[in-house]
Amino acid sequence: MTEALVRCDVAERVAVVEMNRPSALNALSDGLLAALTGTLTALAADPAVRVVVLKGAGKAFCAGHDLKEMQAGRAAPDGGAAYFADLFTRCGALMQLIPAMPQPVIAQVQGIATAAGCQLVASCDMAVAAEDTRFGVNGVNIGLFCSTPMVALSRNIPRKQAFEMLTTGEFIPAERARDLGLINRIAPPDGLEAETMTLAQTVAGKLGAAVRIGKRAFYEQAGMPLDRAYDYTRDVMVENMLLRDTDEGITAFIEKRKPDWA
């Protein structure tokens, strides 16, 4: 019996999604891309899930695209042009799905996160990494500039640092990734899961409706001019204030008690 490419476990309002191609360092094959997209799409529609943790099985988080599958695509009469366009479209759709999900998505990263794997980390809302993890967009080393990973990376870290990573293909360690803003926290390898779950449970303990509203607004306002961003977030704050549970949360704070949230 073939093991699932993606495993998903939900407990205490947190969904843990595991990419399960450890022998291939969780490279994003066509099958894994489809399974991951399907799993995250289903979770996005589940109101019982407050936070999603994304991790990789085995010794690596994700080594990027499956190069053997990509090379096989060259056998087509067009040299693989249609396949490559479709592949990068599907991968781009996955990367856009993550910030569009109503739940915060936390990457739990170990080993390496390279090329599209680094893109995956950059696409998540937050990330926790083991202290010995290495990050890179190293396609340039084999003659393929990481143009699609560049989109997420350049929206996470300073432009000159992103350009250096893209043009040198050099890896950066977890500490440097944290300093640049690619990840949030670092943990010892044996404490990675605990550190990630601490963050996940902290977020899951907040009012879910408020976090959903806030995540949507976070990404929407980021691309707006300053005056429009303030007009937009004003309306978001009004929407949030009118929630029954927000009224209860403020009242409970004033009365020095725990809120009775539905």
UniProtKB/TrEMBL annotation:
Q: Which GO terms describe its molecular function?
A: hydro-lyase activity
Pfam families to which the protein is assigned, alphabetical = ECH_1 (PF00378)
> Lipid metabolism as a keyword?
yes
Q: Which domain of life is it from?
A: Bacteria
Claim: Transit peptide is one of the keywords in the record:
yes
Alphabetically sorted, this entry's keywords are: Fatty acid metabolism, Lipid metabolism, Transit peptide
Q: What does this protein do?
A: May play a role in fatty acid biosynthesis and insulin sensitivity.
Q: What is this protein called?
A: Enoyl-CoA hydratase domain-containing protein 3, mitochondrial
Q: Name one GO biological process term.
A: fatty acid metabolic process
Give the protein family: Belongs to the enoyl-CoA hydratase/isomerase family.
Q: Which organism is it from?
A: Pararhodobacter aggregans
Which SUPFAM superfamilies does the record associate with it?
ClpP/crotonase
